[in-house]
Amino acid sequence: MLDPIILLPAAINGLTMGAVYALVALGLTLIYGVLHIINFAHGSLLMVGLYGVFFLYRLFGLDPYACMIVLVPACFAIGYALQRSVIGTVSHGRDQNVLLITLGVSIVLENLALYLFSADTKTIETPYALDVVDLGVALVPLPRLIGFVAALALAAILWALIGRTDLGRAIRAVAKEPHGARLVGIDVEHVYAMSFGIGTACLGAAACLLLPMFYVSPHVGNVFVLIAFTIVVLGGMGSFTGALAGGLLIGLTESLGGLMFGESAGQLGIFLIFIAVLLFRPTGLFGSRLS
Amino acid sequence: MKSGLLAVGIAMALAVPQVVTSEFWLGVCIAVLLSTLTGAAWNVLGGFGGQFSFGHAAFFGAGAYAAAILEMRFGVNAWLAFAAAGVVGGAVGFGIGYLSFRYGLRGSYFALITLAFAEVLRILANAADFTGGGVGLYLPLQVGVANLQFATKAGYYYLALGLGAGAILVGWMLERSRLGAWLVAIRENEDAARALGVDTFACKLQAIALSGALTGLAGAFYADYYLYIDPGLAFGPGISVEILLAPIIGGIGTVWGPFLGAAALRVAGELARRLMGDAPGLSLIFYGALLVIMVKFLPDGLIGLLDRAVRPRGIHAGGAHA
Amino acid sequence: MLGAPMLEVLALTKRFGGLLAVSGASLTVAQGEIVGLIGPNGAGKTTLFAMISGFVPPDSGTVRFDGEDVTGTPPHEICRRGVARTFQIVQPFGRLSVRDNIAVGAHLRLADRQAALARATEVGTELGMAALLDRPAASLTVAARKRLEIARAVATAPRLLLLDEVMAGLNPTELAEIVPVLRALRDAGVTILLIEHVMQAVVSLTERLYVLNQGSIIAEGPPAKIASMSAVVEAYLGHGAAQRLAGRAVAGAAV
């Protein structure tokens, strides 16, 4: 059971999946770090992205990775609009309202998909889906390798965006001190919407990387939302490096845990980690600043 | 005038099975009452106490499985099992509450952890043998009052009526009690409450235990009514969402909110079904949209709407009735 | 315990990360006194209150109430023992009526809802809020909210009241109204320790003052004596200020 021949591929599997988890979590981290809201709609937005890739592939023959050109801006727009016109308008002074409305949005999206596309799981078969790359120590399916590399690249781009651009500076300012930011002339509502948009755009990218090695169904969001939360909490609400490391860690845990103890145990392990982190170290393993 | 209205209402409620002859509509009434029970239960913790739980399925499923397993594997009398389900629900509530509140979880973090606990229970129920695993449990059909299985829906209706009314009564009593006042204080400002001598930990624990117990009873009713439960149904996020919809739409923290919300939801749901057909997911799209609309435009729920119509500058709903 | 001061604070210290907020602060309050705690902003006064009332555990030192060690006791427990506090930034239960707000305090000693509401009406009226009892707390003016803070605390039937800047932001009329209210409280048997910036109120109300600067108590005594102490002047106006002021006095200018 602990033979490296079995362990290593499982570990690599876990890492590649973990990279995609990390990308999903990065979007959530950005949204939490700036808007300080727990976006319960994150999973269903990923589902929307996945259906987007699916139909782009099926209807236009667009390669999933190429779909990013379409999907990332589209998801950005959806996220921006959602925050600007729905989510951002409701707090009425009660934080709970934002929780409820993101929950409501997720319910609507999930069941809209159920109604339109039925509960069947759908997959796509790209011509290179079965290609395998020989890494010497193990054989890795090509889509997974691409997913891994791309996720890390996107994380780097996001990091550069937040750290090096004017927009990024505005985002960091608003994250730290919204009132002060408003006073120096930053359009805080716009920055909020931009952050939500970027967070959703991450989901669009993640969807493109994910579909070749996963599936889409109306409920696929539920699978990811709690995993994403676990990663965000584990990595430290608002820490990018934390989300990245957390994502890889969770991917590993799920894969190895599933290998050693069965699939439900793997899932169980994630939730238990989540609960433990919430209880004992809610600032996560990496602290709680947008960094 | 108010007690007159109440008396009429009670008389009407009692007469329903005589008047409503359609099994279908009687079933709808039962569903409304069950939603009232779970909604009122959620309201104790979420409405009065201000702690929003997104994982009430944990208590519902615990009660459902407790009743089913006690009846099926241990031959316990259905009514005893029913009562035990309440105790189990309360115990699960106490456990989750103890951990969550001991470590100071509030707001979104609390909502998240309740979600996680419910999922943990769902996975466990799915994997274990004694819960029937993923297949679930089929309760044997043994019609008889002693088995909490009634020959006609009317029997279930009266039980549900008792439960629903009882739950509303709990809310009513809470509104007039010290615990209720303290919970509302905790909801409005926990630190200020502490400075006024409120043991916030103990109060929140009581609220979640009570909430869990009532929800556990609902789960047991569900098991004995539908005679089938599985992990997805009993512990799934669908139940958690359904539970919190009624009190939020009806009016958080009010006595009649859960009932109004449950009734409004069912009526609206049936209407939607008539208009748009019975496709999967349709009613939930509707509920989700309703939730979004309510939170955006009517955060105080239907009761808030009524309040504003009657008393334009009145005290807001939420424990302010002296 | 007979003879012991009602409140004894012994060498309380609190550090927040690298910041030493309170350093070895000691004070006593005897039953029936009105004692003031003054000092420039950031001196650590509210932190001291937070430690006395149980919201913040001290790093070292002791708090004794009625001779009993209550250091580190949780806030609700301290309130039960008879120490009530108000907050510098008022914390009303916004959506509740004034009466319901005060009733939360009254419920500490009264389990029955009607009894608590009646007591709340009593306390509210005593503190001059009879006309406001049915209004939602969120609709009150700042002065009224401060009064509500006090009313809520008083409803818990405290023996010691810790008031944190209840007069900040009040105009002269409001000030003139609140001072007799506080005196009446003391006359009714409530001991008061108050943090205050409004000097005229401090001088007219308190019998003794403690001065806190940068976390340490630098002076103690009756208001008249405190006002003339150079250390106190320097705490507020900066190093050397006392001398400069004294110099101007000698040169014939008004101080």
Plain-language structure description:
The complex is a heterotrimer of chains A (291), B (322) and C (255). Chain A is an all-alpha fold. Chain A contains 11 helices and 2 strands; from the N terminus they run ααααββααααααα. Chain B is an all-alpha fold and 322 residues long. A two-stranded antiparallel sheet of chain B has the order 1-2. Chain B is globular, with a radius of gyration of 19 Å. Chain C is α/β, with parallel strands linked by helices. The N and C termini of chain C lie far apart (46 Å). In chain C, 47% of the residues are buried. The chains are: A mainly alpha (291), B mainly alpha (322), C alpha/beta (255). At the B-C interface, α7 and α8 of B face α2, α3, α4 and α5 of C.
How would you spell out the order of helices and strands of chain B?
Answer: HHHHHEHHHHEHHHHH
Q: Percentage of helical residues of chain C?
A: 25-40%
Enumerate the spans of chain C where pLDDT stays under 50 for 5 or more consecutive residues.
Answer: none
Number of strands of chain B: 2
Number of helices of chain B: 14
Determine the mean pLDDT of chain B.
89
Largest sheet of chain C: 6 strands, mixed
Topology:
The complex is a heterotrimer of chains A (291), B (322) and C (255).
Chain A: H1 4-35, H2 42-60, H3 68-86, H4 95-117, E1 132-134, E2 139-141, H5 142-164, H6 166-176, H7 178-183, H8 188-210, H9 220-235, H10 240-261, H11 263-280
Antiparallel strand pairs in A: 1-2
Helix pairs in contact in A: 1-5, 1-8, 1-9, 1-10, 2-4, 2-8, 2-9, 3-8, 5-6, 5-8, 6-8, 9-10, 9-11, 10-11
Chain B: H1 2-19, H2 23-48, H3 57-74, H4 78-102, H5 107-127, E1 137-138, H6 153-175, H7 178-188, H8 190-195, H9 200-226, E2 228-229, H10 231-235, H11 237-250, H12 257-276, H13 282-297, H14 301-310
Antiparallel strand pairs in B: 1-2
Helix pairs in contact in B: 2-6, 2-9, 2-11, 2-12, 3-4, 3-5, 3-9, 4-9, 6-9, 7-9, 11-12, 11-14, 12-13
Chain C: E1 7-16, E2 19-29, E3 34-38, H1 45-52, E4 60-65, E5 68-69, H2 75-81, E6 83-85, H3 98-106, H4 113-126, H5 142-155, E7 160-164, H6 172-187, E8 191-195, H7 199-205, E9 208-213, E10 216-221, H8 223-228, H9 230-237, H10 241-250
Parallel strand pairs in C: 3-8, 3-9, 6-7, 7-8
Antiparallel strand pairs in C: 1-2, 1-4, 4-5, 9-10
